[in-house]
Amino acid sequence: MSLSHAADPHASLFPPLVVRTLITAVVAGLAADIAWEVWARLLTPLWVGGPLEPAGLVQSVFGLGSRFVAELIHGFVGIVAYPLGYLFVARPIARVITPFLPWWVVGLGFGVGLWIFALYVMAHLIAGLPVFLGFIPLTWASLVGHLIFGVVCAAVVRMRERNS
C-alpha cells in the first residue's frame, strides 16, 4: 500500500473476487500462521514458561472436548478467515480512514485488532475469562504473536499484489 492510494481514483478499495485473491489470502495466512506458531510454541515458553494455547481458548469458547478439532478451527481461522478479514475489512477501513499509513502499520493495527478479538471478545465476553486474562505475561506474549501475525499477513499480501 503506497501513500498514493488515496490520490488514485482508479484504485479499488477491495481486491478483485478472483481465485488469485483467495490464493493470496491462504498464502498470507499460512505464512502468518507459521510465524505465529514459531512465536507461540518455541519462543513464548522462553519468556513466560509455557506456550500460547489458542486451541484451549477455542475449546472453552465452543465447549469442545476435542483438542484436535479446536486446533483445526484455530488453523482454519488463521489460514483463511483472518487473512480474508485483512483483505476485505481491515485494509479497506484503513484505506478510507487512514490512507496515509504505510502497509506495515496497517498490519500491526490488524494484529492489535485480532488480539482484542481473541482476548477480550472470545476469552472474556464469550468464555467468561478475566479481561485480557488479567494482563498476565501470557497476555503480552499473545499481543506480540498477534502483531507478528498481522505484519506477516500484510507483508505477504503486499508482496503478492506487487508481483501480479
Which runs of at least 5 residues are low in confidence (pLDDT < 50)? 1-10
Whole-number count of domains: 1
- Structural class assignment: mainly alpha
Largest sheet: none
Number of strands: 0
Strand content: under 5%
Annotation field: number of helices: 5
Protein name: DUF1440 domain-containing protein
Keywords: Membrane, Transmembrane, Transmembrane helix
3D structure, described in words:
This protein has one domain. The longest helix is centred in the middle third of the chain and has 31 residues. With 164 residues, the protein is mostly helical. It is built from five helices and no strands. It is globular.
List keywords for this structure.
single chain; 164 residues; mainly alpha; 5 helices; globular; transmembrane
Which SSEs are present, and which pair or pack?
Blueprint: H1 19-48, H2 54-62, H3 67-97, H4 103-126, H5 137-162
